[in-house]
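Journal club prep — side note

Before the paper discussion, L.F. wants everyone to see what a predicted structure for a comparable chain looks like in token form. Sequence:
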Amino acid sequence: MLLITAIAATLVLQTTELPAPTGDASVPAAETITTPAPPPTDAATLIARFDAQYAAWADLIAELAGRKARERYLAELLLPVITRSDLDEGASGEILRETRDTIAEVETANTQWALAQLDPERFAAFELEHPRLAADLLRWAGRDEAGRARIFAALEPVAMAGRYDAQAFAQMADALAMSQNDRQIYGTVAACVDGRREPARLRRPAELDDRRAALGLSAMEDAWAALIAEEGESCEAVSPSPE
């Protein structure tokens, strides 16, 4: 009943008319900005949309909520105990050691479950409707370094649609490519060659600006000029760490 009451109150607020915006009559109709089509208002369309969204995502959202609650419950159990000021000497560390396996088991299970949800086509649709929950899946999946390729594949259609930070995605793509002994894709990685900063090896350099533009990034010449202005052209090569 509380849920129905809240929905009814929302409907009352939504039916209150707002003053119409005043337009500028001096602007010709052909020059006005195109606005998106208004959302549907008929019951049949909205009911069908409700049913489709529930059928598509209810199980996933319920599973995600349960797993989030389990992690949160572990923290709520543990933190009030180990932060007490009256514990015996060494008790806090012993409690952490003895509970570590339980925490790791829950986090690992959640991480692997999140990775399994990152089918590119399905994830892009989920992110469009539930961006905050999609971010939770990505955060969990990111706890596994071995899952970077799957995260990249799931994020690619989202980034191409302009719903993910373009620079962050480009850096992710380049780091992944170079970790696989491949050439970088978007030109975000610099190398130090003979004391001078230059882009690391590029995949199909002639197509670089087209790839960057498709993602919403500036031309490489402009981006590189900004990098050199900030960090300078001179650099020092980093020696590999001794084994």
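L.F.'s comment for the group: Strands lie at 190-193, 196-199. Keep this in mind when we get to the figures.
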